[in-house]
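Note to self: keep these together.
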Amino acid sequence: MHYTLHQLQIFVKICETKSITKASEELHLTQPAVSIQLKNFQDQFEFPLTEVVGRKLFITDFGLEIATAAERILNEVHAINYKVSAYKGQLTGRLKLSVVSTGKYVIPYFLSDFLQKNAGVELVLDVTNKSKVLESLDNNDVDFSLVSVLPENLKIEHIELLSNQLFLVCDKQFKPSKKIQETSILHELPLIYREVGSGTRLTMEKFLNEHDIKVRKKMELTSNEAVKQAVIAGIGSSIMPLIGIKNELLNGELQIVPVKGLPITSNWNLIWLKNKNFSPAAKAFLNHLREQKERIVQEKFSWYDNYL
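Structure:
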């Protein structure tokens, strides 16, 4: 047997995602590179680790056993690395976060200084929709989650990081009058929605229901980036978080249409399970946020004021 740690990491990720495509995306590798490493790993065993039925990838029972063993090996490797760093007097360990998709525009700025000062801390960051974020938190798979809508069915604690403002956004060709629009304008526009389970969609639908707005036409897309590109292309309009459209507003690809009742205001919250037993790395990160969040907001997000 001559398998490498790299092959173990790839195989474990394939087992988690049940997809070579998704595994390659999460590992930031090309699909051919992942496929080659899977084949090289597979060739070292007499029994198949995976099988393809139709176009779907399945992990065999033998493959699942190998994945479990591989994960144990990788955990031991991480433990060795942490022990070396701890011996040097460095803060060590994994910091695990799940973040709603639009939160990827927020969380890096609150992580940057902390990770630079604590090189022994390894970040594990999962960016997905709200439903999966809360599932990972409920399963205690992560230390923290970043959401814009607090869950009602989990016992959590939280810290507010940043305000979240949602505006009606159109492409540069749209020509509204200069005055603030009535909500009736939303009856006329084709609206683009995020997928079911998205916090942005939940907030948008709540606003539409409260104002008894019947949508003329709608499209559903599965990421903030997809919605943004569709709006830029003139396919429709959407109610979008300001945090994700900074560059497009600056270069004129998108424009905010003033509407009564907008922006919708909530907060980006870092949440964790009540009575969570924090690792030293997680505890240090929370202390960092409590001490530095005001400075970070002032330095990194002062551009907000231009649109409020």
